[in-house]
Amino acid sequence: MANQSEPLLLSADDSDIDHKTRPEELTFDNIVERSLSDFGFWQLFQVLLVGLALFFDAQQIFITVYTDAYPTWHCVNHTICDHSTSDICKLPRSAWEWDGGSTDKTVISDFGLECSSSLLRSMPSSAFYIGAIVGGFFLAFIPDDSLGRKKLVLFSNFAMSITSISVVFSTNVWIYITLKFIIGFSRSQTWSYALVLISERVSTKWRPRATMIPFTFFVSGFMSLSGIAYLAQHSSWRYLYLYTAVPAIFYCIFLYLFRLESPRWLHLQGNDEEAIHVPLLMYDSLGRKKLVLFSNFAMSITSISVVFSTNVWIYITLKFIIGFSRSQTWSYALVLISERVSTKWRPRATMIPFTFFVSGFMSLSGIAYLAQHSSWRYLYLYTAVPQYSIVSSSTFSLQGLCHCPNRYLAQHSSWRYLYLYTAVPAIFYCIFLYLFALESPRWLHLQGNDEEAIHVLKCLSSKNKAYLESLVSQLPVEQETSEELPRYSIKDFFFRKWAFRRIVVVMIILFGLGISYYGVPLAARDIDVNIYLSETLNAVVELPTFIITPIILERFSRRSSVLVNTLLGGASGVLCFLLSVFRKTGIAFAFELGTFFCARTGFNLMAVYMVEMFPTCVRSSAIMMFRQALVVGGACCPLIASIGRDLPSVSFAVFGVAMSGLGLFVLILPETKGSSLCDTMEEQEKRDQAINTSHC
Questions:
Q1: 8 A C-beta contact, residue 337 and residue 211
Q2: Which residues does 39 contact at the CB level (< 8 Å), separation at least 6?
Q3: Are 197 and 341 in contact (CB under 8 A)?
Q4: Is 429 helix (H, G, I), strand (E, B) or coil?
Q5: Where is the signal peptide (predicted)?
Q6: What is the separation of C-alpha 375 from the centre of its chain, rounded to a whole number of angstroms?
Q7: Disulfide: which of 101, 349, 381, 407 matches 341 by Cβ 3.0-4.6 Å?
């Protein structure tokens, strides 16, 4: 039996320790490093499953680019109407009509906002980001040890998906704005949860690669959105929400059924045996994966509800709910993925969900194009329904409610279809997530469930099953209960000087990256390029970052990588502005892509860096604050981008200066390359002291 006076979890990187010759040094960290060192198929499956949450998250972030766009129109009475010179708001309604003859192609035409103030037309998008900000701060106060990694990822995705489906039923713009706020709130921490879960499920060796996986899904979702929107461009905007939300519902169900908790979290909960033998399917207690599931499911359901919006206020309300629901999806998924891979694979594994995010964004263009003759309501439905297997019944009910024959829907699509096309698949994703996702072993360890955490490790690494089985008899008989274990929350950042300093510096850097990442695509219209082409290329340039990021992390230090990347991105933004002034449009757009590429790369680098700087007990809260800074930066983008309409492309200079200037703060942060993950604040402090002493 192991020495009970020795802590089960240490912070040193003991992945190379021979456990057979040195059994007296058996620690939970050694167990995790050894059992997850091979990064086998099941471990990869778990990373992919959690990372997929960011695919649907990306679609909800960028969906308003298509659903809330100002549709094209043409003159009917040419005696009083001239399309090139006439102001649509000064013409009689009988003198013009929307192209395609459909009044519900986008939110603008469906709710009659063509002559409304720009403030009202931008409120749905603003409500989404406000919901993400509010949700980020609110959910950050949920202690890391209360729910678990997997339940947070599940809840975030489920809530986002359900709310996204609800957008379909918006009857006015205020309901739509409210639902967008809820969607932003729900998915505000999805990225954080997923990254932490992934990083804690891989060894130190694989962490740089594993953490790139969710980012890859994010980009994939971003890219897929263009395709979905393109395919649904003749449909109602509501269908775009459905097409992105429904698959997320099925994903949540799949995540709930097949995910495992973080073995490290189980260990910290005192359940060492469960950390080794965690069941493959669903669990009674909350954790990382359920939050991912709930977030996607709620987003998908709300997105489907958008289809039934009867006015712009209902639509706005549902958009608020969608933003609320998916506000933490990114956080939940990233936490769950990061905690389920070893340190070796973590950088690569955490990039997978971001790839799905970009794929989701790209698919949206295709869906929107296919649904361009359908109602916008179906685009919500087709992205939400696949999350909980109600696609058939929803389709029939929607046809009954809308009184739209199939032939009519195919030829005269509304903007509602775009919501449907993006919401329905998300429902299926929720189901898949519910069935197959595993909880974070580190989160289970933190909850004292070391036995369950080891169960998870066995499921993730069948190659080391015999070794893990032998550990059960060596676990301490008497373990601390979860009530006896110390509790940590976001308040610990304010009581510990080193933690407060780190989180503030990280948020400053992410604020600069957020301004550039969200602002560059928004300002691309100032360079006079096709919106479909520019958004697609912006999504495409994100994909190479997930290959480059692990290489950079494995060869160079964390600080130098972030510093050089932000300086290059800042220079590219300034050059884009200068070339635009001299009307070198083609070259300027190339530098615009370069700026966006550096912003994405910097985001990837900081995601891995962030995971390694904070212990398991507060990692979710740290990632949430990380995400909040990014969202706050994104919320400032519309204002900065609007400046570019008065002074062409000056916004790119602002983005570049913000990225490079704020990126200099990385010099204050400690280097973490090659270090394993700590589980408690005390362990983190001891390791930092040891590193500082060795450098003296």
A1: yes
A2: 202, 203, 206, 210, 341, 342, 344, 345, 349
A3: no
A4: helix
A5: none
A6: 27
A7: 349
Task: Kindly list the structural domains of the chain, giving each domain's residue range(s) and its CATH number in brackets, ordered by start.
Answer: 52-71+106-683 (1.20.1250.20)
* Residue 365: strand pairing partners: 228
For residues 507, 508, 510, 516, the Cα torsion angle rounded to the nearest 10 degrees is 150
Averaged pLDDT score across all residues of the chain: 74
Q: Residue 75's CB: how many other CB atoms inside 10 A?
A: 17
Q: CA 450 to CA 137: how far, in whole Å?
A: 30
The answer to whether 680 and 268 are in contact (CB under 8 A) is yes
48-62, 127-141, 438-452, 502-516: segment of lowest average pLDDT: 438-452
Residues contacting 353, CB < 8 A, separation 6+: 50, 51, 52, 53, 54, 55, 191, 194, 195, 198, 213, 214, 215, 216, 217, 218, 330, 333, 334, 337
Helices then strands, each counted (H, E), the chain:
39, 7
Output the pLDDT for position 696: 56
What is Dmax (Cα atoms) for the chain? Answer: 93
CA-CA distance, 6 to 27, in Å (whole number)?
A: 8
**How is 365-393 classified by DSSP, letter by letter?**
HHHHHHTTTS-TTHHHHTTTSTTTT-HHH
pTM value is 0.59
Determine the average pLDDT of the residues in 659-687.
Answer: 86
pLDDT over threshold 50, residue 482: no
The residue with greater pLDDT, 288 or 190, is: 190
Say which amino acid occupies 286.
L
- Cα 90 vs. chain centroid, distance in angstroms? 43
Instruction: Report d(CA 34, CA 32) in Å as an integer.
Output: 6
124 pLDDT more than 80: yes
DSSP tag of 477: S
